[in-house]
């Protein structure tokens, strides 16, 4: 059977998806007009024709630097028009775009540079010190292209040979387009390789679930180094000839003002952003009349937050996905949110989903187990990590690591994470990584990191630390050590010293006991 064709068991779940209103949002016109605005940032706008010209020029610059098909082009900077220009230009020459997280510490970025071995690092001046510090200790030595210099070179290319396409490469749907780093339970980041086909199919799955077109304006403040910011609405909007308004960072007041100023019709948000907007003093006065829908994800949102948006006549569609799925797997169906305010939704049309039960069986439809995913949007593997790639699949299904309950009506609820990831402000914090860095201190015998509910960030980390006999260590020393090694959002909000860690009969740490203890910290 063709890989994209549903089995008889799967048709039932997909049928439920259609019954619950996918596609019920009015259809939008989908035709790209060269003179239409494609991108806006502050007072600068680019039409589709201008964007195409700039992409050609940037591609010529990269090719002139010797970048070849299959080479990696790393990019470090906040959201910017240049992010899209470098992304599309990299694809034009058959190279692989590697967006780096500006919230990471220099040591973390250094590791990713050494892992992907880029030919070029494109560096935004706003984070230049971070990039330079990462390169200072890196084993690799990519060409450094500062964004200001890149713009000058691009202008020169446009003037000298604006129509030269000799650098363009033939690519297939199977060729890699992106490497996006996502942490794992081992504590080391892994580069998920997304092909041109993965990204294209994700766009189609989004558009089968929701409708977009030339009269849509997507407001993007979610970081473009994440699949939420880049692939969830943003690329679908450009695919259908809509407009993307780029914001370099998220600030609730500015975002609410921008919704009105640009007559935004849709936007992707991390779950914490959704709550921050609802809680902001400008919420009641904000003009949301043009907003058709919001897609959010990263962690569950409390029912009252969803209800507040619904009361403003905005469809809020919770989604569930991961970098390895480009990212779409589940999304709430338009028209069904009020009855399922805490559900992660139903499967995207071109995504097959199953459950791996505790006894090792793969089942379809209602039930509970680890969520399994299959489809043309599933990544091709982790960069240079074949063993890690193989470990994430079972019988051709990608293992999400999340325990999900699927009800009889087909709507899914995420219950827990097998890999114990903490989602803080939409960012993944992996306990093993934090524990590894704390364990670098000589005075530490062992430690365990668990999540704590937090009103602002959804979840934060709490570290339980056991010291070696006769050693002394205070919380400030631990935090200073972490600040030099990890991004701020990964640093525990709470540090608790214990004489021992609770363990079960087999010697494993009883994290549920620590979670119960951690709840008292935020009470």
Question: What does this protein structure show overall?
Answer:
By secondary structure, the chain is α/β, with parallel strands linked by helices. It folds into three domains: 1-30 and 178-419, Rossmann fold; 49-171, Rossmann fold (3-Layer(aba) Sandwich); 422-519, GMP Synthetase, Chain A, domain 3, CATH 3.30.300. The chain contains 16 helices and 27 strands. Helix 2 (48-64) packs across helix 6. The longest helix has 17 residues, at 48-64. One of its GO terms (molecular function) is ligase activity.
What's this, in brief?
A hairpin with a 6-residue loop joins β13 (315-321) and β14. The chain is α/β, with parallel strands linked by helices and 523 residues long. The protein is 31% helix and 27% strand.
Radius of gyration: 23 Å
Kindly give the count of domains: 3
Class derived from helix and strand content: alpha/beta
Number of helices: 16
CATH superfamily of the largest domain: ANL, N-terminal domain
Please identify the top-level CATH class of the largest domain. Alpha Beta
Residue-averaged pLDDT, rounded?
88
The amount of helix comes to: 25-40%
- Which fold name fills CATH's third level, the topology of the largest domain? Rossmann fold
CA(first)-CA(last) distance: 54 Å
Beta-strand percent range:
25-35%
Question: Per the principal axes of the C-alpha atoms, what is the gross shape?
Answer: globular
Could you list the spans in which at least 5 consecutive residues all have pLDDT below 50?
1-24
Largest sheet: 6 strands, antiparallel
InterPro entries: AMP-bd_C (IPR025110), AMP-bd_C_sf (IPR045851), AMP-binding_CS (IPR020845), AMP-dep_synth/lig_dom (IPR000873), ANL_N_sf (IPR042099)
Pfam family, one: AMP-binding
Domain AMP-dependent synthetase/ligase: 27-383
GO molecular function: ligase activity
